[in-house]
TrEMBL record:
InterPro entries recorded: CobQ/CobB/MinD/ParA_Nub-bd_dom, P-loop_NTPase, ParA/MinD_ATPase
Region (Disordered): 51-71
Gene3D superfamilies: P-loop containing nucleotide triphosphate hydrolases
Gene Ontology molecular functions: ATP binding; ATP hydrolysis activity
GO biological process: negative regulation of cell division
CobQ/CobB/MinD/ParA nucleotide binding domain location: 2-173
Protein name: CDP-4-keto-6-deoxy-D-glucose-3-dehydrase
This protein's GO CC annotations: cytoplasmic side of plasma membrane; cytosol
Keyword terms, alphabetized: ATP-binding, Nucleotide-binding
Coiled coil: none
């Protein structure tokens, strides 16, 4: 299970979750771990299911990707157990983590085999990404690297600030972002880099 995390909402976590899910060799399950504001299904254009009984839904334009929304009624322990069961059942899983450093953000980081931190190229967001990376390490989960969103290049200082290698950058494009060839190519390069690590 690969967790896609970041310090703040709007950093590009959901886009990166779907971008990598589509770039990896399938089948891949993309899981929304944000119980308060799940939006993975809507960004993917997938049918939303009743959250009381989450069900795997097909991605409408990529048969190798499936989408799973979180259960609405689960305490932190039950939610973590649900994530562990999902990880055990689905070999290739990418998880869209909630922002912040609370228990809801910690659960997917604890379950994941590795974490990719996502941040736009601004100092406050990068500092938050560094905190997320530190939280993952404190929970015993390795940080595979950082994806810089809405940028074409990343200065060397990003690796030092976040404390993880830059896996790649994703350019700022008009909507629908994931349909743009430059964005799809960026996620393919990042997936290839992750495959080599």
């Amino acid at each position: 299970m690969l967790a896609i995390a970041g310090g703040k909402g709007g950093s590009g976590k959901t886009t990166t979750t779907l971008g990598l899910a589509r770039a990896f060799d399938g089948p891949v399950l993309a899981v929304d771990a944000d119980r308060d504001m799940p939006n993975l299904h809507s960004m993917a254009g997938a049918e939303r299911c009743e959250r009381e009984t989450p069900a795997v839904r097909p991605h409408p334009s990529d048969p190798t990707v499936s989408i799973l929304s979180p259960p609405s009624e689960a305490d932190d322990d039950a939610f973590e157990q649900w994530l562990r069961a999902v990880a055990a059942e689905h070999h290739h899983t990418v998880v869209d983590c909630p922002a912040g450093a609370g228990p809801d953000a910690a659960a997917p980081l604890r379950v994941a085999d590795a974490v990719v931190v996502v941040s736009p190229l601004c100092v406050p967001a990068l500092r938050d990404a560094a905190k997320t990376a530190a939280m993952a390490r404190a929970l015993g989960t390795p940080v595979a690297g950082c994806v810089v969103s809405r940028a074409r290049v990343a200065p060397d200082s990003v690796e030092e600030l976040v404390g993880a290698p830059v896996l790649g950058t994703v350019p700022d494009e008009h909507s629908p972002v994931l349909a743009q060839p430059t964005v799809r190519a960026a996620y393919r390069r990042i997936s290839n880099t992750l495959g080599r690590n």
